[in-house]
Amino acid sequence: MRKRAETLQSIAYNTPGKNRVIGSQGHEDTVAYIQSELAKFPDYYSVELQGVPLLVGVSANLTANGKEIEVYSVTLAPSGSVSGPLVAIPNLGCEEVRYWLIYHFVERIRGSNVC
Fold first, then answer.
1. DSSP string covering 61-79, please?
2. Residue ranges of the domains in the chain?
């Protein structure tokens, strides 16, 4: 396992950015390495690459209650759209119990039977 980890680290460090950031040469080389390793076992794995459209940190916008709110795109996040209810969390959600409450609120919205 350590040898494989060192190989992956080497792949990253052999690129100009010395990393595997999404869309970078290190990322592409890592994917190629993993694909080639799995291809050595055709009786066990059928490997296909699935393309994913990725616009890294291009733009972001947020509208809440019909009002535009200034926001900034998140680095290394895929593109997409999200919509749903907006919930105010007191104290910026900085208490452990708030995470529990938020989780259960979201699960109820989803129709889950989580208790």
1. -EEETTEEE---PPTT---
2. 2-39, 84-115
